[in-house]
Write a structure and sequence with these properties.
By secondary structure, this protein is of the alpha/beta class. It has helices spanning 2-37, 46-58, 103-117, 121-124, 141-148, 203-217, 256-277, 297-309, 327-331, 353-358, 362-381, 386-394, and strands spanning 62-65, 74-78, 83-89, 126-132, 154-158, 161-163, 178-187, 191-192, 226-233, 240-241, 244-253, 280-285, 336-337, 340-342.
């Protein structure tokens, strides 16, 4: 009888949460469309962050703006339960091509789920946080906020991410790659290209050789590793042999040891180019390291059950997927869920103009609200088992702090 009552109570709560998403649908869709229309890149998401924070305040959340000293970050809280749940909100766009990663949909799904859950936080015995995390595309907002304390005390963290059509909604076994981004600067000696070329040390030649070396290296690396680069600077006029060249590059792999090994091989390509041309080389990191993504199996099961209710494909995943996210750093220290949201009809690659257009369609907003409901249901189901509630509570993140005596 007790099991029947529990099941009935959960069914009632799920219906109420679905109604909550429906109630906020017009406001959240307008918000998502506004974010899409105003393409604010990393750390410049002033309008988007304020619009989201204002709507969460309207929905009963206490909002802290400028969290962790980041002007476009925020933390919205409701409830006072021992278990703290975080819904991550992303809203930065890509340079030039806008929301070609669908962050307007990520924001809409998390915000709609948060607004639907807010009236029930005391019933669930949770503290609910909607954490605005800027600069996912470039800059690692979540990494910075994790280091500065925004996720202290959080026992589980969730968000969704849109992808092309045809991918399973089952996140179990999926991941994302570690990625590190760097600037390689070659320094040579300038000279007149016609009058005294023999007196120059050509930094642009070093940039060319590094590209050739990396290109040849690609044949010798595992198929799931990735290297990308572009020449950011290599001279300005034809009659001066350049004394400075800059190559921006990144490395990706699914495990940190593989990533470190790949980075070392790429570094040697740049060192060889410097040696061959007589230039000097300096390599520096330009962004925080994004770590591999870990999906929590229990959260994945709750999400998959929710997506089954919407008739989605929840067949087992083929395995690891490409791409990277700073949610990986969160997932390394907090039980996390980062499922994939397949947009109907989106048969184009993400990070393209075509995908940016598809992220602002009725079909995209339709699955966004299904995802919002599934997120709310997952949050409601996760602490319903005493064993799982204890696991998540015990997993609450605590930063390591450093004192003169050592680590605490």
């Amino acid at each position: 009888m007790e099991q029947t009552d529990t099941t009935s109570a959960m069914a009632t709560l799920r219906a109420a949460l679905a109604d909550g998403v429906e109630k906020w649908k017009p406001r959240v869709q307008a918000l998502a469309r506004e974010i899409h229309a105003h393409k604010e890149i990393s750390f410049e998401e002033v309008r988007s962050a304020e619009a989201i924070a204002a709507l969460l305040e309207e929905g009963g959340f206490a909002v802290e703006r400028g969290t962790c000293g980041l002007p476009t970050a925020f933390a919205a809280s409701a409830g006072s339960g021992e278990l703290t749940v975080a819904l991550c909100v992303e809203y930065d766009a890509l340079p030039d091509i806008g929301h070609a990663c669908g962050h307007n949909l990520i924001a809409g799904a998390s915000v709609a789920a948060a607004l639907a859950l807010q009236p029930y936080v005391d019933q669930l015995g949770i503290t609910l946080k909607a954490i605005g995390t800027p600069a996912e595309e470039h800059g690692g907002g979540k990494v910075l906020m994790l280091e500065q304390g925004a996720f202290d005390g959080v026992g589980l963290a969730l968000m969704v991410h849109p992808v092309q059509d045809g991918l399973t909604y089952n996140p179990a076994g999926t991941s994302a790659q570690a990625v590190g981004r760097y600037k390689a600067t070659f320094t040579g000696k300038a000279a007149h290209a016609a009058a005294a070329p023999h007196q120059a040390v050509n930094a642009a030649d070093a940039a060319v050789l590094s590209q050739v070396a990396v290109g040849l290296l690609r044949q010798q690396i595992p198929g799931d590793h990735r290297i990308a680069l572009y020449v950011a600077e290599a001279g300005h006029v034809t009659n001066i042999i350049p004394d400075r060249a800059v190559v921006q590059f990144e490395c990706r792999a699914f495990t940190l040891p593989e990533y470190e090994a790949l980075l070392e091989r790429v570094r040697r390509c740049f060192e060889g180019a410097a040696l061959a041309t007589g230039t000097t080389l300096a390599i520096e990191a330009t962004e925080p390291l994004y770590e591999p993504l870990l999906q929590d199996n229990a959260l994945a099961a709750h999400w998959t059950a929710a997506m089954d209710a919407f008739g989605k494909d929840t067949s087992p995943s083929a395995g690891l997927g490409g791409g990277s996210t700073d949610m990986g750093n969160i997932s390394q220290v907090i039980p996390s869920l980062h499922p994939w949201l397949s947009i109907p009809g989106a048969n184009v690659p993400i990070h393209s103009h075509a995908f940016a257009a598809l992220a602002d369609t009725p079909e995209a907003y339709g699955v966004m609200f299904e995802a919002a409901t599934a997120l709310a249901w997952t949050v409601a189901a996760a602490p319903s088992s005493p064993t799982e509630r204890e696991r998540f509570t015990r997993a609450a993140y605590r930063r390591r702090t450093f004192t003169q005596e050592g680590t605490s």
